[in-house]
Design goal:
5 helices, 2 domains, single chain, alpha+beta, 75% helix
Length: 295
């Protein structure tokens, strides 16, 4: 707090000097926002009859404005750090999307999907790390403007006010942070849509492959059934042959011993259809029992 007769132009750099009076004109506050050799920013508050309490409140609010202005600007370096990464992800997303239009092989689509997933993870990591910083910058920026509204501003001569300075210097930084945050959100949505589309294509291709595999399995099963039926017929013929042969030996022995007087060849020939039907019936029952056990 200084004498009201001190002119701000004599203390600060005229090129960046800002000054304003409070709402009733009983105080003037000015600065050039230029750090001195010690790193501090000097602020002039000229008392024009405020009184002790109002002077203390004004000083506190002006210091708060400068403190919160500095804190709000901490989001700008974070935005500048993340901007190249966001731009690279945007470029790569366009390239992957263009490549996915021409990709036909499942392996290619799976590789593109994996790359999109990696890009989305990288973007989310950056957004999660910067979310608090950008949110804090917005909050501090609002506090600065609230403090200006509380103090009130009246233009002093031809000098720019604090609000005009903040509009020129601080607002672009806040818009940069807001723009990058919006780009992150929109890019995350685009990555999610592109990944969903590519995942759908991969799922369709996998279903087509599974359908082809099932069709091939059905064909192999049909061939196996045909082979099984052929083997079954051969088995019936082979077993019937051995049964008829055994029956022929039995009949021949019985005829030689005088137990049977009919010609053995005639009996053997008559037994052939009976043997075939009997063997076929037994094999069929065995097969039905096995199929029932599997089901």
């Amino acid at each position: 707090m200084t004498d009201a007769k001190i002119a701000p132009e004599t203390l600060f750099d005229r090129a960046s000097l800002v000054a304003a009076e409070n709402s009733d004109g009983r105080a003037l506050y000015a600065t050039d926002f230029q750090p001195d050799p010690s790193g501090f920013i000097r602020i002039l508050i000229a008392d024009r009859g405020l009184g002790a309490e109002r002077a203390g409140a004004l000083t506190q609010r002006v210091l708060e404005m400068e403190t919160y202005r500095t804190l709000a600007l901490l989001g700008l370096p974070e935005a500048q750090r993340l901007a190249p990464s966001v731009a690279r992800i945007e470029t790569r997303l366009a390239e992957v999307t263009a490549a996915s239009r021409a990709a036909q092989r499942l392996e290619t689509n799976q590789g593109l999907l994996n790359e999109l997933t990696a890009l989305a993870a990288e973007l989310e990591a950056g957004a999660a790390a910067s979310q608090f910083r950008f949110g804090a910058s917005r909050a501090y920026d609002q506090i600065v403007h609230l403090r200006l509204q509380t103090i009130g501003e009246r233009k002093v001569g031809g000098l720019p006010t604090w609000s005009s300075f903040l509009a020129r210097r601080m607002a672009p930084a806040m818009r940069t942070c807001a723009t990058l945050e919006d780009r992150q959100a929109r890019l995350a949505e685009k990555l999610a849509r592109a990944a969903n589309l590519l995942r759908t294509r991969v799922d369709v291709e996998l279903e087509q492959q599974n359908r082809d595999v099932l069709r091939s399995m059905n064909e192999r099963t049909r061939l196996q059934l045909m082979l099984q039926a052929t083997v079954e017929g051969l088995s019936v013929a082979a077993i019937s042959y051995y049964v008829v042969g055994l029956f022929g030996y039995l009949v021949k022995g019985a005829h030689d011993s005088g137990l049977v007087r009919v010609d053995p060849s005639l009996l053997t020939g008559a037994f052939v259809p009976v043997a075939i039907l009997l063997v076929w019936w037994i094999v069929r029952r065995i097969r039905k029992r096995h199929i029932k056990g599997v089901n």
